Amino acid sequence: MVNTELVVLDMAGTTVADDGLVIRAFTEAIGAAGVSEEDSRFAGMLDYVVETMGQSKIVVFRALLDGDEKLAQHANSAFQDAYAKLVADGHCEPIPGAEDTIQELRAQGVKVALTTGFAAGTQNAILDALGWHGLADTVLAPGEGVRGRPFPDLVLAAALRLEITDVRRIAVAGDTPSDVQTGLSAGASIVAGVLTGSAKKPELDAAGATHVLESVRDLPALLS
């Protein structure tokens, strides 16, 4: 096994407990776009949100709202506001052992990037709530010139920013098939699915995960 220089970790569901926050924020957001829980379209939209968990939220809203950019942006802003309020109200906890895992990896000389499908503002709200600014070597969210999952951009942008010598020296861990697809597309040697989020082992295996772990806490042992 090649020595790992960089570990790219997802946030919600992997290092940060979700506990249904995405669904709650989505319900408010899609309501702001004119689709209530009583609407006949709501159940199908909710299923799609679950299926695409981990992907950039603005991309998800564009798909749900038939490419109506103004409405998608409105829903995305409502999602960000709703999620940030849930975080500010104390509904944000780390996955047990996640912080220790990041510190352990960095102590071993491995660089760590925290990535998300949320907008940068939502990511920062989570980092604020957990006191995680500075915990990782870098944090990344989809934005200008960086596409969200399942594209490889978040992993490759982290590798460029942290001056990694070879993509084969990257390990990726996440709780969704989108996380797995991103790691594989970026050329990472280790692409681990974790079972603390939305996906089950068969889904992660089907996506091509090289390993499936109970938790991100198991990652240092895998890399040793």
From TrEMBL:
SUPFAM superfamilies: HAD-like
GO MF annotations, alphabetized: phosphoglycolate phosphatase activity
Pfam families tied to this protein: Hydrolase
One CC-aspect GO term: cytosol
GO BP, sorted A to Z: DNA repair
PANTHER family in the cross-refs: PHOSPHOGLYCOLATE PHOSPHATASE, PHOSPHONOACETALDEHYDE HYDROLASE
NCBIfam families the record matches: PhnX-like
Protein name in UniProt: Haloacid dehalogenase
Organism of derivation: Amycolatopsis thailandensis
